[in-house]
Fold each of these.
Amino acid sequence: MSRTSRAVRRELPAAPDGVPAAPDGAPAAPGGVPAVLARARALVLPEIRRRVEGLSPEVRRVAAYHLGFVDAVGRPVPGGSGKAVRPALVVLSAEAAGADAGVALPGAVAVELVHNFSLLHDDVMDGDDERRHRPTAWALFGVGPAIIAGDALLALAMQGLLDAPDGPRRRAASDLLGATLGMIAGQGEDLAFAERLDVSVEDCVTMSAHKTGALLACAASIGAVLAGAPGEIVEALSSFGMHLGLAFQAIDDVLGIWGRAAVTGKPAASDLREHKKSLPVAFALSTPGPARDRLAKLMSNGHVEGDALASAARLVERSGARERCLAVAERELALALRSIDGPWIEAAARAELEELARFVTAREF
Amino acid sequence: MSRTSRAVRRELPAAPDGVPAAPDGAPAAPGGVPAVLARARALVLPEIRRRVEGLSPEVRRVAAYHLGFVDAVGRPVPGGSGKAVRPALVVLSAEAAGADAGVALPGAVAVELVHNFSLLHDDVMDGDDERRHRPTAWALFGVGPAIIAGDALLALAMQGLLDAPDGPRRRAASDLLGATLGMIAGQGEDLAFAERLDVSVEDCVTMSAHKTGALLACAASIGAVLAGAPGEIVEALSSFGMHLGLAFQAIDDVLGIWGRAAVTGKPAASDLREHKKSLPVAFALSTPGPARDRLAKLMSNGHVEGDALASAARLVERSGARERCLAVAERELALALRSIDGPWIEAAARAELEELARFVTAREF
């Protein structure tokens, strides 16, 4: 297996280097890193460290390495990996419902653990050997330990929601399992689509809704669930997260073909090379004509490399797929913001949700 | 990776061919297949099929194949794989607390799904390409689809326990997650021990308690939890399951070195070949003397094959490890039966628990 990882890019967002964190409590200036990210990290990291400490030593060292708590030989490292976008959504979803961030803690921890479970397994499935500028867990410790560590994080996630006998936590656990199953379905579709040429735009959006939307929808609503918020608030926040996920994925898919070319100077087009049926490819393949047929032919021959790869990227570009993807992202971002545009969402939380949404969908091209 | 799977053998029990199932409701004759197995299968299989039907198509075909619901090309197959020992324990644990088998259903389904999650992942980790006389899921569909299908079964298992808002189910879900984490710890230890020579008998028993005992303890008590039984009944049943797991694993470890030799005529000794630190090996390595030193030397050189393998098996045998393992199995079986020897366990269920315990620990040598 040597498929390029969707998972790496699913690790949203790539924060611009050198942007200082905003002072605590104040939203960052437009374009900066939202303050809620630091707040969410401060809340969840100690608890995640504590939970991971409770794992058996063999599993713990792999999980702790993956999470950035220790280096390759087990020496402690300050901080932890990941930007905590999902925990930030959980915190804001509790605050959106008028509750304290503390109410969101078990949900924020659980969502972040589920996310990391999926990263550990995706790296194995996709054969990716680097993440966050370090060797991936399987590359360092082997496939078995990486699978087991992922399994452990999924189980830990659920356990944290169930160790207190109150109704909202059970509901939260149930929601998170639904999201996990959605994510699993999406990864299954992603793997299967690589073998097919008849992936429609609708298929592709469904896959993104599963693979990326489900967990973001859960992250954006689970805090409100834990706060015991009314159904319409939970629904609105969930809808916000789903649309945000679709917006993010559309941009991510554009980067998967054209992004790295701009940054690295080489025609990466890794999604094309690996036959990924991302949104631009689905757009191009569903636009009838000779260009579509040439693309389909190029993409039905083993790995696409060299001149064929450059041709395929040009054919996708000429179909107008790039602009259509960016339009999808814009529309989905608007739908996300419209979902939370009501008096039942706390105004301060709404402002931070909007800031976060713009941050994770504003990617460098 | 080409480690011999502990998981295959963990799939207890190997039912003698040609033994007819006992009529419904009546315990089988001594030495036959316990009637509770057919009863448990009839209870859980339709529900497991229904749950698996709800998975996305790509994940479903792999899960359904692994579970024996369809063949390699997706054609339906009657029945389903596995003997349903764990669901049988769950059913009996509800009945032991005076409740109906129906109360146990969500627990029986969840425990069986967790068991199959672990089999799917263990086959990948151990590189085993055959299970139940069919190619394993990863061998047929690839590593990625097999990991994803395992993930899906774990999530489905928990979801089933959480889709109704009652307290006992939350407690059951929490117990099952604890058992899952135990099982994960055990698999981690098993992988790590292959690299070590200083595995003590105590380390090995701890590993078995995790790898095999934790899920059997949960299976044997989760029905009582769902029935809302008092703590002492739950504790007694959990203790029964843990001791049963240790008894089973001790016998399984004996089979891992000497069992197949008797059945197949070749000196399989697969645990030795793969450097597994099973109980007999731990016994032999902890018995000081020149034999121990020769064994340690043999087992520190890459794969053990040919003459070296035969020598290693002889050294383990001469240390008296085989008899010590069988004594452990006997003692643990007695402790299991003593755990449920009280007036608070329903007599009929106790008789069936005992029959089942004797069945799964009576292995052909």
Amino acid sequence: MERLGFIGLGIMGKPMALNLLRAGFPLTVHSRSADPVAELEGAGAAAADSPAAVAGASDIVVTMLPDTPDVEQVLLGDSGVAEGARDGALVIDMSTIDPEATRRFASKLGEQGVAMLDAPVSGGEAGAIEGSLAIMVGGPEGSFERALPVLQTVGKSVVHVGPSGAGQVTKACNQLIAGATVEAVAEALVLAARAGVDPAKVREALLGGFAGSRILEVHGRRMLAGDFAPGFKARLHRKDARIVLETARRLGVPVPSFEAVADALDRLVESGGGELDHSALVTLLERESGTSLRSPGRS
Amino acid sequence: MERLGFIGLGIMGKPMALNLLRAGFPLTVHSRSADPVAELEGAGAAAADSPAAVAGASDIVVTMLPDTPDVEQVLLGDSGVAEGARDGALVIDMSTIDPEATRRFASKLGEQGVAMLDAPVSGGEAGAIEGSLAIMVGGPEGSFERALPVLQTVGKSVVHVGPSGAGQVTKACNQLIAGATVEAVAEALVLAARAGVDPAKVREALLGGFAGSRILEVHGRRMLAGDFAPGFKARLHRKDARIVLETARRLGVPVPSFEAVADALDRLVESGGGELDHSALVTLLERESGTSLRSPGRS
């Protein structure tokens, strides 16, 4: 069994690392906060005091970090993975970051004989805890085969979509569709409520038809209940929305409906809703139209 | 068994009328084109030469027409249903039209003792043929109960959402979400293709996750194949998009992401794509970005 390293024990990373440990992988961890490191040590992992030290003790290093600059720092910065990694090591970056930066990091690591996969996930904290994440993988076929035992431990659906960066492009597509669907469900339910039609009945009637989706089911229910405990935080979807827009602009692809979604995410975060679930997009529309899903009609 | 009338034997209306006839309802029909009338007569229906004559021979009159002015003409115009209907008759309008106009028509008919339900459908031609439509019903509870044997013959999911107009509001919500999801899927697949990632693999990877929907499955497949035989014609979705926008403006509800979708439907129709399936929205993005889902990358 290959020796694993895991860097980034946040809301997603900690349960993923615990699942790898339980599956029997020898594991060395590192994170900025002390508490999850102590928890992993208690469960049998070793702790290392830098990404370089993790890499020195591991055949495969998994990273799960908030944003592009964090991944750059951990992989290529002082005491980073690149400093400690041996020839033949494999890095699996499961963070959601910019596809272009991903290709640059993979190329830099490749120069010293370290392979890299981008393997961002969908499924949230629940999926991380249950080991049921959907994983979209970019990178060389051989590295993908080598990573499979690791990825299948933390995920249920693991798809190799293409070369380096392809996993991040796919995740951007996922965030585009998910954001657009959340916003559309919000617009529809507020329209119904403002017209005096019970939005709960509208959700019920639509679930059976062509407008049905898991988002109408799950986020529709959150919106109706006004329950915006995350879930997936609006500020993280905003970060991902910026990746979508930057990628689209760089490639010259128009994304007119998603521009409106990204703008709404900006406004939600700027008005203090960044820590709420992204389904709180509905609150902007409730406010602007002077209605509420809890009391349909004019308020 | 109540005697039925059916007005409007188009792509949707003809198979619905045939299903009612097969279920044993005595049926009188009327339509602008002669061919479907002859077909229904061959199957055992009676033909009448005006909406008023249909109403004179029926306890319940079903209408399935293209747009708001058609329904107004058939119900309230010269030789319309109102002229021939008896006290206690019931009109079930299954067309997709403006909710505000629906309430006006129901009120006019009510003045002469004729009840009206709005009962627009989702499910397309296939759903009409199979009798598996999703039906969203607005109007009085008693009329809904009376209409159930008819509605359950042509539909699988029949939901009473509220008073007069509520069915049309619900259908507008359906068209909002469906249009937004088709556009989002199109934006995502073109973004993937332009980034050099196989859009078929992206669709596959996303279907298992939170961005999954019937539209990603069905319309995603159409887009990848470049097969835009309808399905649901873009010009009809554009008509419905106008109903959504008018309703939203009247009520002061912002629908920022759907504004972009409605604009795209306008451009698709104006560039000659009105008879194509609405999934042809993807062709606008392919053209504007200079890429194709059939040959990903720069073209």
